[in-house]
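hey can u check if this looks right to u? its 274 residues, i copy pasted from the old doc so theres a chance i mangled smth
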Amino acid sequence: MLRSRGVISPVLALALAIPISLAGVTVSVRGWLDPVIDLADQGSMVTVLLHPRLDEASRAAWMKKQTDRHPGWTVKRVPPHELADRMSAWFPYLKDLLAREGPDMLPPLVEITTSEPEAVAALAEEISVIAVGPTSPVNRVVGRAARRLSVVLYAVAIILAASAVLLTAIWIHLEVHRNAEEIAIMRLMGATEATVRGPFFVAVALPAVIAAAVSVSFTVLAVMWLAGFATPLGLSVAGAPATVLAVQVVGAVILPVATAYVTLGRYARADEGG
């Protein structure tokens, strides 16, 4: 059983290490998205342009009404001089006009901070409101996209882990069938169950240990390589988490050994029943 393992063991180890390492890389990269996902739940600011004919008292009354209607909103008026600075920066050709006429010529602008910016769009129907700014800020759009990508990455990791389990089950069953005659002869000669299973466990454990080392090494190197592309994007890049590497080691070693234990036990019971 232990003969000619020089080629078989590395091939089996590589076949097992590939899905496990790719799953580890996927989970590690998904962790980089957490700060971006949080953007989807953060409060967003929507600008509301009020009618220029509203006097100070009417404007204050309108802002108080919105705060009373929507306790979760934070309504803040942009001071005229700050709005003038913004307009001068966005539209340089207005700088001379604003300097000559003064910031009071600009219509009043209000900023509403809320976790439900879509609800602010309803204000556009009021007579006091000229226009409502975008209700789908970039940060929320990016956060929602990152959340969807996170679900996809988790699904990919689960599929890769399932493929590793399926590969292990097929591998162990083929090993048992390939050495069925040798196992049967050892049992007929009166060998104990530990003697029968010992070489089989060694033949299985050797590729499992190699697979654990290869999968961890590949995950660490792949995550480091991908970090070089993710850093310029502003993602919170980190190395492969220790928990992910530990799960890879445990999975690569325990999965084949446990499958071998269960499979040999089933065959032993079948031989006794026969």
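Residues 5-37+140-273 form one domain.
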